[in-house]
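Running this now, will post back.
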Amino acid sequence: MKTNEQSTTNIRPVFNCSLKTWGGCFLNEAAYPGVNLMNDLMELLLLFKTNKYGLLAEIRKAFLMTRLNSEEDMNRFCFFLKEGDKLLCFRYTTLIFDFNASPFILLYVLRYNAEQFENDTCTQMLMNNFYMDNLRKTSNSPEEPRDLYREAVCHLQKGGFDLRSCNSNRRLLKAQMEKDNRIVQHNSDLEKGARL
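Update: finished.
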């Protein structure tokens, strides 16, 4: 259960992929996590400090938006609950939080989505400036963050993702984010994009 202001959902079911039972192995031990597609966090932070104008955002419910498409994929993560004499089967239709391959799958889907567009500055940003579901981009051009924000919103929407908690140190861009209802919604210090 999450009670802080930044939560988009108050309850997050977590499939314990590290639980070892019956003397066997746990799911994360048996599953291949995929290749590391994670951008270097230190590099992103250093780049963020080197330029004058910034753009921050995150993807709303990124792991919930990365839907598994086929029936076969959805049946890979089932769990059963007994209710009286009935055995009920439930299955995950989204990425599992805490599964070792979930970060790889999310970043792969984001990169795949970006590759559907012309290889321009926005595509490069979507491929190289995410750390998990958090976008960090800076520029010395006052117009570039505004243009990238608009393009990124469109590109991500076409892939089924919604950019939220946006922020910038450019007043005009912040006004556009407010108009689009994508601006950071509160002054919590815990908000990822609250302060620039």
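The chain is about 35% helix and 15% strand. More later if anyone needs it.
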